[in-house]
Amino acid sequence: MEMNIIQVADPQGFFPFPASPFVAEEAGTDTRLEDWVRRHHEAWAAADIFVIDAQFSFFGRETAPFGGIRLLKLLRLSGFRQHCILYSFLSLQKILTVSRHNTILLSCGTTYVQLPDPVDEELCQAKAKIPCEEDMLPFFQAEALEYLGTKRHSLANWWGLVRMYEVLNACGLIGDDVPRELKDTLRRDSSYEGQLMNFVRFKERQPQFTVDPERARLLLSRMRALWKKSLKVVYVDDCADDGWAYLLQLVLYGQVNPDLFIVPEIPREGIDPAARAQEIILERPDLVLLDIRLVPEDEQAAPFALSGVLLTKALVEASNTCPILILTASDKRAVSESAFEAGADGVWTKEGIDEGRNLSADKYGAFSLGRIEELVMQMRRLSGFEFTLLYDGLKHINELESSEDVHWWEKDKWFPADTQERTALERSVLIGELKKLFVSHKQFMAATQPAVRTSAYDMLTIKLCRILEILHPTGFGNQTEVQTLGKVIVDTWPPFSVAATYAQHLITTRNEVVHFDSKFDFARNDALRYKSTMDAFFAYLTLPTPSERPGLAEGKIRRQTDEDGKVSYQFRGGYFFGRFTSQQDIRTCELLLDGRESVSHVKAAISQPTVDFDLGEVRMLENYEQDRTQYWTAAFSVLQARS
Q1: Residue 74's closest CA among 15, 108, 32, 113?
Q2: How far apart are CA 75 and CA 47, in angstroms?
């Protein structure tokens, strides 16, 4: 029976069986030995035995000294178990001395012949009966570890990228617009080193990637929730162009969105963390994504020499006002700890080559999908209400610190009619206390249990109110000073009546938290209560400085007509914003603007309880109830100022 012998050698090489089929054609369009093997896979599957020149050079394209041995490895990685005979004029000892990874020549199912010893049909007949049935892992493991030792950063990024691509493809997000750089990265999966890593990971040929359709649909629905947010993101990564930027945009927006997804260039000579931090802050992003390592691997820099950790520190020092998520291919605990210590709000670990070794091949798709689920959950968490609340507080602090205005609490007299001697408060003192509060808030955010966060918001509310005691060192807790001040100056400085409202709200909130009321639902309103407290606190601090002429407020009443033809009047004056819609109020506004109605007559009209008055939007009061008369009082001030 005639044997099906596949001979592989360069055209000018030695062919033991001239009459048998041999592979000696040009490589054609194949630029890699891996692609060439793949093209011949179907034809070679029926071979009885392979006879290979150990020094095969892939028609001059293989740079390795023993292309035939590399071909042998690719055959094994591709699932070929037929016996392989390799031949050369070099001794086996010489070949093994060149590289310890050539020990595959000693594996079962492989024979090495040193020429001029014969490679004949009798030898082929005998060896064809001995296929490769040995576990090949030991022959590849050492080489894989060597690759990991010299190229761990690039290999880890490639591995995580391919796994992420497969998950998003299973979710139906990969279209025809895949960038060339990503295609090049994906080709690495079929390269020799890619097949090597997959073989070491799965201990067999790479299995078909599959995920549970129901889990894929659930992940897609969670991503759609992210898409609705239209987050502006700055992404800093030396591997961004490999495909990471493209895939992360699919997660965040469902498509490429260069207007919202900013990828700064990283010069090869490196970046200055402080300068780059300022550039990022000027973009005013909603989220910052930083890779842990920001230098090319061939420079052999230490992991933290120039990294996302240093850039995170620089962002924190520059008072960055959005969450920071660190992306890393390392699962080492020290990496995550250093990121959080630097000020990061989250760390996402890309799927690593070393992970999931104990999983069966049919489970690795679920493992990869779970890692992307974790990324989406982190992005949703960091862009959610609680982190928005955290960084809104820091924005308030930054605005207060950088304001050129001299606030009322920075003066010896808080209002024009103030007769009490006061010590002006140094702004730096207040800012220092507020920054301590922000640090506490950020530390509390690390607690994932809702019950813990509820207690945290209660504590933050109390701390915020205690900072007011710096302004009101006596009497704030029992409202004495605020009430007294309100009675004295409500007629001379209208804004302070608003200030008293803010202070009253702060006092009430603090007392509700300190003196537990069983009727109060803490679990439901913890974060919202803290937000209202924080808004009232900063509104209280930033009330405009009163005019030295008491009773005057600049503003105007404006007539407006909506789409339905309904007429209303708006009044904007200094500290107040009111909208008047009732017929009597509209008539009063018209009379006031015409100058045909006396101030006393209007005062008498609005003092009647039957007068309907729509407060509408109240910007300064944050929708807290106020006596409508205050608006008219401000309106009269406008008229008096004009007269």
Answers
A1: 32
A2: 12
pLDDT given at position 527: 82
Q: Of 328, 160, 151, nearest to 237 (Cα)?
A: 328
Other residues' Cβ atoms within 10 Å of the Cβ of residue 25: 9
Question: For tokens 């603090």, what's the residue?
Answer: 510
Cβ atoms within 10 A of the Cβ of 612, count? Answer: 11
Residue with token string 């070929």: 80
Q: What phi and psi, each to the nearest 5 degrees, are found at residue 100?
A: -70, -15
3 state SS of 73: helix
- Tokens 């803490």, residue located: 522
How far does Cα 496 stand from its chain's mean position?
Answer: 43
* 190, 260, 273, 308, 412 from 313: Cα distances, Å: 39, 24, 8, 9, 38
Going across the sheet that includes 555-561, the strands are: 555-561, 567-573, 576-580
Rounded to whole angstroms, how far apart are CA atoms 360 and 202? 8
Q: What is the largest CA-CA distance in the chain?
A: 124
pLDDT one-digit tens code per residue, 81-129 = 999 999 999 999 999 999 888 999 999 999 999 999 999 889 999 999 9
The DSSP element (H or E) to which 264 belongs, if any, is: none
Q: Is the pTM of this model over 0.85?
A: no
For residue 49, what is the enclosing H or E element?
Answer: strand 49-53
Distance separating alpha carbons of residues 472 and 466, to the nearest angstrom: 10
What's the pLDDT tens digit per position in 214-225? 999 999 999 999
Q: Report the C-alpha gap between 576 and 592 in whole angstroms.
A: 18
Residues 6+ apart with CB under 8 A from 228: none
Other residues' Cβ atoms within 10 Å of the Cβ of residue 26: 10
Q: Which two tokens stand for residue 99?
A: 């590289």
**DSSP assignment string, 99-150:** -GGGGGGGSTTEEEEETTS---HHHHHHHTT----S--HHHHHHHHHHHHHH
Residue 165 CA to residue 155 CA, distance in Å, equals 15
CA-based end-to-end distance of the chain? 119
